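Whether sequence alone determines local backbone shape is best considered at the level of individual chains. When preparing material for the folding task, we compiled for one chain both its residues and its backbone structure tokens. No coordinates are needed to read the tokens, only the vocabulary itself. For completeness, the protein is quoted in full, as a sequence line and a line of structure tokens:
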Amino acid sequence: MIDPSDFVNSPLRHRLRLDTLVRLRWLAVGGQTAALLVVHIGLGYPMPIVPAFFLVALSAWVNIVLKVRSPASRRITERAATLQLSYDILQMSGLLFLTGGLGNPFAFLLMAPVMVSATALSARNTFTLGALATACATLVAVLHLPLPWPDGTEFRLPPVYSVGVWIALVSTLAFMAVYAFRVSEEARQLADALAATELVLAKEQHLSALDGLATAAAHELGTPLATIFVASKELATEFEPDDPRAEDVVLIRAQAERCRDILRQLTSLSSDEDRTFQRMPITQLMEEVADPHRGFGVEISISASGTGAEPVGSRNAAIRYGLGNLVENAVDFAQSRVEITSVWDEKAVSMTIRDDGPGFALDVLSKIGDPYVTMRGTKSGNTEAGGLGLGFFIAKTLLERTGAKLFIENRPPPEHGAVIRVNWPRAAIEHASKVDGQEISLHKT
């Protein structure tokens, strides 16, 4: 089984490329340089231009050092990224100190490094950078040089207005950081879940492909085994019955014959004429997905009915894994019984999985199918984490890829338990091209 923590806790999950931070810093350097030149030379406003350009040049020097010492494709650790973004906040705070503090209309650029962290780094580092930006905003709101203004006059904001700007800056910083982090985290979870889905399907297809490899091996080994068998048969006539070597020749011949029997079985196992293996009726599919979950103290009953001939489909890894995951989830939470029923007609095939457990928690019933939704009632009636997380998302995704639609609900009172119904168009089940070996890329959907 795929463990979601392998993706969620991946060391590369929150790593930024160094080149990304360097490019953003070059953009900041260009914008700061242009702003200083326009204000000081274009408008003629007096300002401490030398210290201001020193801070801009310092950022350029940092970028040059990073580019020389590290390749552009390198992914840096969260700690290194946090340190670089902390420097950007301090550098911007220094420019604001020299150019009027929060009275400078560019003061809201203090949020930029925190936004970058919210979209790429962990919550802890984003909170750290947000606290640093808030502290710097508080400091430059109180301590700063006058805002550059024409004719040497000094422009000062009223204290109440300065406090209002500070509150607006901090509030916007908090809101935007939380919003950006939640959106980015959901996107990361979805990407991780899709990657896990592809890995599961690839594993299922790999296991099914072993049958084809066995057939190829049988054909390749057939010729040398036939040679060994013929040679041993001829050697048997070369020795007297009491010759001890005759017994060895008979043993070689017997083992060669045994190998030929095994290879014949492997060849027939995946033969195109063996319709039992290549294709399966819906009842056989139900037995196959239910059988691994028997013997765990929960009765699994299977029933099937419909109008017309029973649907017969190809052995599809996505369908088998998806249904197996749903049955496993039902067995995990059932008290004593799980029912798997199938109904079909000339146009559609429906399979329903019912259990007598506590059912789905009402507050997450509408969210089921999203990655990492992990709340469901336990057998005692409480709620606990587990059973409906990444595995359920993978099952839903795989089944929908085969043309299925899933309907999830709780059983009506006074009954209790969950009901999952999977509906296919009959043509989707019986389509011969939907076999295990189909090449699938979930990122193309």
Notes: The longest strand covers residues 299-306. Residues 1-12, 270-276, 377-388, 432-445 have pLDDT under 50 and may be disordered. Residues 36 and 42 are 9 Å apart (CA to CA). Residues 5-199 form one domain.
